[in-house]
Structures are given as structure tokens and as C-alpha cells.
Write a structure and sequence with these properties.
By secondary structure, the chain is an alpha+beta fold. Helices cover 30% and strands 24% of the residues. A hairpin with a 2-residue loop joins strand 4 and strand 5 (46-47). The longest helix has 24 residues, at 180-203.
Length: 299
């Protein structure tokens, strides 16, 4: 029997400075933060009433894998994910934290989601159907849904912490927001990281269709932050059976979205609970992604 999902952390006298759709974030003084990935799951911009057991551990372990894999390309904000090295005030709460948390350095975050797309899917496909472009980047005529693009494209978005969709923005707007030097650096880093990650994913039988990164400044240097290349922020498809011309099977919340569509939920609060079979299948998809990407069988 699966253990219960952790929907919210409670760390004694510590209060989170933020609770996102998945992560609870705590301040550990002026220079450090505690990131905890819960088992909350969201769909259509709403956190659902049911969590997915182990989801937070899977996301954290995948992020740690990628942070380490990419460390020669870009520095990151992780200080430690070893609970024995956590501050004393966290030691009584390791039952909640083990495997799903990391202590990180505070970074001055750029207010930009660094999105990169290599395939025509999701909102990019809808944009292309309407305009022949994705986020203003003109593409060849006659492309089909899930087609590979001529080359990966940088399609940034403004970070809007209101629970709604982030707003697609032009590269010119990125320049206006963060300056030319940082804008160019963010675009190049995004494309470089994506290329390296895509090669690894392909070697593991996966297509990395698109993803998003978040960057910040620590001591004036750009670092990779938040989470990275998990099924919550990335679209992974099985390489075997890839067939453009429609949507592809993916390693994310597909079962959840399909179920919510099947019950004709109006996508307004309160979000419904999920049946056990949908939770179990979703958990297995996240675990399968973890095993394939990391090469590890267990968390």
C-alpha cells in the first residue's frame, strides 16, 4: 500500500515564506533557503485536493541529478540535500524533509521564465496554428503537431506569481527587463543547457520536447535555480513510437488532465479529488521518468 501524500509541511515554529503549487520555501537566515517539494499536484492552474505519494521526492531527486549533470555548464544554488547537514532547527523534522528537500543559497532571481522549445506542442502548437509563429518567431509553413523544429527556439515568459499562466514575451522585452548582457547570457545558457540535456535524454530513449529554466544572480554570477528538467517543467516523450501529427504520450500529468477532462470539471475552484487508480498511474509515470533519466531504480 502506498504511503500517504505529503500535502503541506509543518516545521514547528518555522513558517514558510511561500507555498507554491508544489514547493514550500522557508527562510534560513539572510543567505539560505530551504526548498521542500511536497506531493501536491496541479492541473489547469489549480492545486488538486489529492496529492501523488512520492512526487516531491521524485522531483527533488531528478533536479539534484540534473544540477550535478550540468555543473560543468552552469553553476547552481544548491548547498546540500543531505539531511544530516541541515541546520539544527530542521533536525526534528527530517521525517518530512528526507529526500524531498534541499538547502540552497538565496539568489536574486531574474523575473523571466527561460523557455526553450524543440518540438511543436502545447501552447506553441496553438500559437503556430493561429499565427504561423511561436511567440513571434516565424516558422516554416505546413508543420504538424509535435513536429521537430528546424532548431530549438528561445521563447521566454514573464514570471507572474498569481497562480495563472505566465505571459509570453519577446526577446526585446527580456532585454528591456534585465539588460542586453544578461538577456544574451540567459538565452545562450538556456540553449546550451537544453542541448546537453537533450543529448542525455535521447541516450535514455526520451525526447525532450521543451522545458523551462529559472536563473538568478549570486555574487554577480548567473546560476541555475529552483527545479530543473523534471516532468513538472519539461515535456518528455518516449523516443520509440514518436509520430508527429498529433499529441504524444508524455511523462507528466497526462492521466490527471485526461481524468479531469473526462469528468468535465469546469476548471474553477475548488479542484476535485482524484481516484486511486489515476493517482497510482500518475505516480508510476513520474517514477518511470526518474528511472529512465537517472539510471537509478530507487529514490
Amino acid at each position: 500500500m502506498m504511503q500517504n501524500a505529503l500535502l503541506e509541511t509543518r516545521l514547528g515554529g518555522l513558517s514558510p515564506i511561500a507555498r507554491g503549487k508544489v514547493r514550500d520555501i522557508y527562510s534560513l537566515g539572510d543567505h539560505e533557503l530551504l526548498f521542500v517539494a511536497t506531493d501536491r499536484i496541479s492541473a489547469f492552474d489549480h492545486v488538486l485536493a489529492t496529492g501523488v505519494p512520492d512526487k516531491g521526492r521524485i522531483l527533488t531527486q531528478l533536479s539534484l541529478f540534473w544540477f550535478d549533470f550540468l555543473k560543468d555548464t552552469v553553476k547552481n544554488h544548491v548547498l546540500t540535500a543531505d539531511p544530516s547537514q541541515f541546520p539544527a532547527e530542521l533536525q526534528p523534522h527530517l521525517d518530512q524533509l528526507a529526500g524531498r528537500s534541499m538547502v540552497v543559497r538565496r539568489a536574486q532571481m531574474f523575473p523571466v521564465e527561460c523557455v526553450v522549445r524543440a518540438y511543436l506542442s502545447g501552447s506553441g502548437w496553438k500559437d503556430y496554428q493561429a499565427t504561423g509563429a511561436v511567440c513571434g518567431i516565424k516558422l516554416p509553413a505546413g508543420l504538424k503537431e509535435s513536429d521537430r523544429l528546424p532548431e530549438p527556439i528561445f521563447t521566454p515568459a514573464a514570471k507572474i506569481n498569481t497562480g495563472g499562466h505566465d505571459e509570453n514575451i519577446s526577446f526585446e522585452t527580456v532585454i528591456e527587463t534585465v539588460g542586453l548582457e544578461h538577456a544574451n547570457a540567459l538565452r545562450q545558457l538556456t540553449l546550451d543547457i537544453f542541448e546537453k540535456a537533450s543529448r542525455h535524454a535521447e541516450s535514455r530513449g526520451l525526447i525532450l520536447a521543451d522545458t523551462k529554466f529559472e536563473f538568478g544572480l549570486i555574487d554577480g554570477e548567473i546560476v541555475l535555480a529552483d527545479e530543473v528538467l523534471t516532468p513538472d517543467s519539461s515535456r518528455y516523450w518516449p523516443k520509440d513510437g514518436y509520430a508527429p501529427g498529433g499529441p504524444q504520450p508524455s511523462f507528466d500529468k497526462q492521466y490527471v488532465r485526461d481524468y479531469l477532462e473526462s469528468i468535465r470539471w469546469n476548471k474553477q475552484a475548488p479542484a476535485p479529488a482524484l481516484p486511486d487508480d489515476v493517482v497510482a498511474r500518475t505516480r508510476e509515470k513520474y517514477l518511470e521518468a526518474f528511472r529512465l533519466i537517472s539510471g537509478r531504480e530507487t529514490l
